[in-house]
Structure formats: C-alpha cells, structure tokens
Specification:
BirA Bifunctional Protein, domain 2, 8-stranded mixed sheet, about 30% strand, about 230 residues, 4 helices, 3-stranded mixed sheet
Length: about 230
C-alpha cells in the first residue's frame, strides 16, 4: 500500500491524495481500478491522486509496436487507457482523476476539454503559454523547434468504466527528457517533448501541486454540473 498524505482533504470536496515517494505502476493501477469501482458501485467519494512513478513505458489502446523504439531495461506495459506510448518517471507529475460522470454529464469530450483547460490554466500561473493541438491529444508549447514548432509538455490518457473516469494526466516538471527518445511519444513525429524546467521554470513539485489544486475547482466544481469551460 503506497504511503499517502491527505493534506488537502479537510477543505477539498473531492478527496485529493498525494502519494509520497516513487510509486510502482501496476499496484497503483490496481488501487485506482478498485477506487473507480467503489465510486461506481458503493458511492465512494470522487478522488484525485497526485504521484510520481518509477520509470515505465505504458502503451494505451492505440499504441503501435513499432513506436516502442528502444526501451532498454525500463519496464513496458500495455494498459487500457486511451492513447499511445508514453513514459512515466521521476520529475513528472501524474494526476489520476476519478470522477463520476453519471452526475457530471455523460460527455467524455467535455471531460477531456476540462482536463486540457485545467492544465493550460495551471501552467499559465508559471508564465507558460500552452495550447491544444488538433489531432494530437495533450498540451503543447510553441518553442519553434522541430517541423511543427511545438513541443509537448503534458499528456492526457483516460479510461471510462460505466461512467467513472480513471487514469488521467501527466505534466513534465523536471524529468529526464531523454527517456522519451526510446519511443514515439503518443505517436507524434513532428513535435518534441519539453518540461517546465527546460522552459526555465524553477518550480518544485509542491509548487505545481498547489497550483493544480487551486485551479481544479475552476473546471470541476463540487456540484453535479461542472462550471463553464475557460477558453
């Protein structure tokens, strides 16, 4: 069982847990699946989990074998979320979002829009201007590099089970970006991968967590219907 801290729980209407230390992927996946089931079947509280994983490459339902280039000794695992290959590891904030869409509107596209808006709003607090990109999920920053001029700073991969979401988002704070060289990240070949640190932001993980928590309720209220999306 991972060690957690519920430091935000007293005032936060959705259970927000911070997992201390690096977490193994598969045990965390099992816990998340159990929680999603409990929300669906037993009326458990919705949850947001913030953590870092031990290094691993995970492939979503659209992952192509040829896009796994040279993982070396790093574990690989195909999982049931949407999306293609990505990397998780130290310096990357992973946030798993378990929400009951049966009371929030059964609209997966609206959920993804809100997750994207949440990331964009949060990173703007650090002075980073981000954008969506048609046909390429995730959040992007214009750096002028590569054929598209865009580099990816955050990924989104979800699974919906009987209208409860699980899996979530991953934001690159200060990971070793060379880890992404072993895959075609999310199947995209005309854009690179960046991080807050690479963009000159000297924030710590706790700083990012604080902003994410503060911005969350602008997009996911405690009422049955979330607030209006920001542009």
């Amino acid at each position: 069982m991972p060690t957690t801290s519920n430091q935000f729980a007293p005032t936060f209407p959705i259970e927000w847990l911070h997992f201390e230390g690096l977490q193994l992927y598969q045990p965390t996946l099992a816990l998340m699946q159990e929680r999603a089931k409990a929300i669906r079947q037993d009326g458990a509280k919705e949850a947001v989990w913030a953590l870092e994983h031990h290094p691993i490459y995970t492939g979503g339902t659209s992952a192509k074998h040829d896009d796994l280039l040279a993982p070396g000794s790093v574990p690989t695992l195909r999982v049931g979320r949407g999306g293609q290959w990505t990397w998780h590891g130290p310096g990357q904030r992973v946030v798993y979002v378990m929400l009951d869409l049966s009371i929030r509107g059964q609209d997966v596209r609206a959920l993804i829009d809100r997750l994207e808006g949440w990331i964009i709003a949060s990173l703007s607090i650090f002075g980073v201007s981000c954008q969506r990109r048609d046909g390429s999920p995730g959040i992007w920053v214009y750096t002028g590099k590569g054929s598209s001029g865009l580099e990816k700073i955050a990924a989104i991969g979800l699974r919906i089970s009987r209208w409860v979401s699980w899996h979530g988002i991953a934001i690159n704070l200060n990971p070793n970006l060379a880890a992404f060289d072993a895959i075609v990240p999310c199947g995209v070949t005309d854009g690179g991968v960046t991080s807050l640190s690479k963009l000159g932001v000297l924030a710590k993980m706790n700083d990012l967590d604080k902003v994410l928590k503060e911005q969350f309720l602008l997009f996911f209220s405690s009422t049955q219907q979330p607030t209006t999306l920001a542009n």
